[in-house]
Each structure stands twice: as structure tokens, then as C-alpha cells.
Amino acid sequence: MTTVEKASERLWRRLNFFGVLAGILTLLLPFSGAWWHLTLGTDGGIFSILASPFEFKLLIFNKQISTAEAVQFSPLLWWLCLAFKLCYAYFGAALLAGSLLSLSEKHAESAETLVRFSSLKLLWLVVAFVVVLFIATFLVNSATQLMDSALIDFSMPYIVGTGKSAMSSGNFRISAPINMGFTSTFAVAIIASALGIASRIYQKRISSVSASPR
């Protein structure tokens, strides 16, 4: 192997490719749709919720509430989702930049700082999202258990699964299934989180190799 080939190989080994992939995915995730869905009813549902840390969509008989209506209904939630979008687009850009800067020994310290700062941000968001969903479904189930079961029969699954809902009034009874689950976008978020962890570990390896005497 020639000197040029060896130098080229050393250069590519310095590239944090885990961070490059994680950074790109983190950049795209805020604009990739819902992570989780809840549907009441069949054939599209009477009522549907599509949620992620970056968006919250409400559909009634397959008709989505417009952005203007959503802002009017809950301006705090709308601004919170926007803030998460901007923050995680920034974290993705920081991780991508740090992973590419690792190619340069001159910017090795900056690269390590950026990767260390941004690599685990998505992981904590994924964990927090699942915890919030679990708490929300737990509270809803606890609240419905306090209601009169003769009038309302409601059983919501915890985060993923199928449940039932029914309302009775005299001889009249309405029932509908409840379906909840994660989307393929959530799977991408998990993959990006794992790549973020790998990028942090690999960046430490790059830094240790750079710091070792030649």
C-alpha cells in the first residue's frame, strides 16, 4: 500500500460515519410525520390522533383540523411542537457537522464537543415520548374506572394494542374499537438514536487515536 493510500485510509477512519447517518436522520425526523397513532372506530376511525414530539394532529371522520384551528385550540402546544422541530433540526445539524469535522485534526476538539453535545439528544426524546404516552394512557384508564361502568365501558391499551369503548343510554348502545400503535417513523427514530450512541463511542475512539503519539 502506497503512502497516499495509507493517508487516505487514515483519513476515512477519522470520519464518524455513525454520526453522519444519525445527523441526517435527526434532521429529517421533525418533518417525517407522526410517531404514534390512536384511532377510535374502524375504516379510518371516528376520531384519530397522530402524535410525535414535533406535531399533534387531530382527525374527526378523516377530516384534519386545520393549522389555524389548531393554533386557536391550543397555541401553547403548537408553539411547543415548533420549538422541538427547530431544536432537533439544530441538534441534527450539530451532530452532522461534528461528525464531518472529525476528518480534520485541526478541528478535532470542536468535532468532539459537537458530537458529545448532540449525540444523545434524540435518545432522551424517544424515552421521554414513550414515558409521556404511558403516563397519559394510565391516567385515562384510571379516570374511566371511576365512571359508571353501566354507562361507559372504556378500556384503553397501554401505548400499543387494541381496546374497546362503549356508551349506553337506556336500550341504546354505541361501541367502537380503539387501536393504538407506533408508526414506521418511530422505528427510524429508534435507529437514529442507536446511531447517535454509536457516534459518541466512535468519536471517543477517534479522539483517543488522535491523541496517541505516532
| CATH top level assignment of the domain at 14-133 and 184-211 | Mainly Alpha
Total strand segments: 7
Proper CATH architecture of the domain at 14-133 and 184-211: Up-down Bundle
Radius of gyration: 23 Å
Number of helices: 7
N-end to C-end Cα span: 19 Å
List the helices and strands in order.
HHEEEEHHHHEEEH
Q: Could you please say which CATH topology of the domain at 14-133 and 184-211 applies here?
A: Butyryl-CoA Dehydrogenase, subunit A, domain 3
Q: How many strands, what sense, and barrel or not for the largest sheet? A: 7 strands, antiparallel
**Could you list the spans in which at least 5 consecutive residues all have pLDDT below 50?**
none
Q: What does the average pLDDT come to?
A: 83
Label the overall shape: elongated
DSSP strand content: 15-25%
Strand order of the largest sheet: 4-3-2-1-7-6-5
**Structural class by secondary-structure content:** alpha+beta
| Proportion of residues in helical segments | 55-70%
